[in-house]
Batch of 3 targets.
Target 1
Amino acid sequence: MYVAEINLGEHWFWALLLAACLVWYSTVTIYVAIRGAFDIKHMLARLAAMRDQEQ
């Protein structure tokens, strides 16, 4: 019976670790996607401004 309690404890530890990793990975992915979209937007605006200055 004691072994089952240890396995259950290990199960919750790994489930918690997995959940923490998924939350961290999702947060980083969303952050990078949003920052990347803003960077691309600003880059295209700068390129348009440079094109307008050349003409």
Target 2
Amino acid sequence: MKIKFLTVFCGSKPGKNPAFEQVAIALGSWLAQAQIALVYGGGNKGLMGAIANACLANGGKVVGIMPKLLLEWEAQHKGLTELIITEDMHDRKKLLYEKGDAAMVLPGGIGTLDELFEMLTWNNLKIHNKKVFILNVDGFYNALIQLLATMDKEAFLYDDWKERFIICNSVAEFTKLFSYP
């Protein structure tokens, strides 16, 4: 698989587990080395800031997309390759997904889950067919994966949910899927 732009959804907070930030830094560094541009929410805090700063520190390109509403809340990153300001959250999500060739979900909160489920819904409705990866750092998404299995078991899903996304447990596992350095 080859991609030029990876959209990453993750928390604007770092979370309690230091592994979350370490993974964000490792992924950002790898993206720069692999010459894959990072597309993300445009913030400078939490995991969002960690991945963007790591990508930039290693010579990578970073495109931030942020709605006017969140310019101060998520502390807009001022050192990005490009920052696009949208009118609202819906436009932000649509543009985030359009700009990426694939998407990665790291740990995060409600906004991250919203973005994940919108992407999965768009895949299900055949609006697009981009790969969606979940980086399941230290089992962060285990409960979500179990919930999806239950939804499937109870016949609430139309397609095989396991075909909707690829679960990786480490950055190394993710990078093996690509033909990059």
Target 3
Amino acid sequence: MEDFWVFGYGSLMWRPGFAHVEQRRARLHGYRRALCIHSWVHRGTQARPGLVLGLDRGGSCIGLAFHVAPPDRDAVLAYLRERELVTNVYLERRVAITIEGGRRVDAVTYVADTHHEQYAGALHADQAARQVRGAVGQAGPNEEYVFNTIAHLQELAIRDHWLEAVGALLKDEASADPR
């Protein structure tokens, strides 16, 4: 049976929620981490949508690859589908990734469906910060999600300049707010 890997670029990196035998730093070419999904439940509402992460076309993304033991493959896929495909804004894809040491493997990941109504498109950092600012959903403030993501990426020594720029704009605005 072939190796089964999962590529995580957001919360899957620090909260995978499934059994795995190994995790390695990895790079995916052709997609980038982006706040490109309108959040209508967890970090916003339909009336005031927030933004959450997706893999959007272009660039590359450093994340973590999780190697799953063959007996766990079906259970892990079922778990991921339940977690990631709630509103079908993500598409399950098998992609080639390069793991630490230069080895290329195929992995399952979830990319933004650019035809879905929740797809926000490619945003400049200031546009993303404006949409994130003040959005609140069932899981809490959207700003908290962005700051938490940046903090976890920093713990993993993963730089994401665009997301860090969004965070800096949010912090600048928060420090300038006279409330």
